[in-house]
Amino acid sequence: MILSTISHFQLLCCLVLLLILPLPLYSADPDPLQDFCVADLKASASLNGFPCKLAAEVTSGDFFFDGLSKEGNTTIFGSAVTPANVLAFPGVNTLGISMNRVDFAPGGINPPHSHPRASESGIVIKGKLLVGFFTTNNVFYSKVLSAGEMFVIPRGLIHFQQNVGEGKALAFTAFNSHLPGAVIVPTTLFASTPSVPNQVLTKTFQVDDDLISTIKSKFGS
To answer: Where does oxalate bind (predicted)?
Structure first.
């Protein structure tokens, strides 16, 4: 009886260990083990970022970036996103940070999109923006923000910003990932490669085939 009890206890301990051991695999990115790891963009990306440039090849310029100082050229949506992620600014490699500059023409929108690998915070620098996001329970949160006001978007949730002021608008956004990624809803659905079959979209949106084809044509699809 005692041996049986011990055996069951040992089995329980083994099961607990099997449950606990995988947990680190699903935790946040590990802390860097070096002062910096400037990305070598010529190499292939690894699990936690790009390989590091040799320390002897690192220069002061690797830690400074002026790309966010320039106004972007707006797209058909009336907005322009200028990224400062690891692909544009190799110095942020493995640091778990990045930024965007978002310029808006009058009436422009940064269309509904999500960032699968990061939460987002942002601040309006100029103009008025309607900022909104949607939860997984289909609840919509939004507010019109003016210069100096901030917003936060939880990781992975669909969100947007639209210029509702009279002139241009400008915002800066920050992420807790060096490569947050972006899934832009309209271009994903209507301008993907290969193209999403029309019957998928007509059934999804409960519209006819001609309307789907018209929307796709707006994106050159």
So the answer is: 100, 110, 115, 120
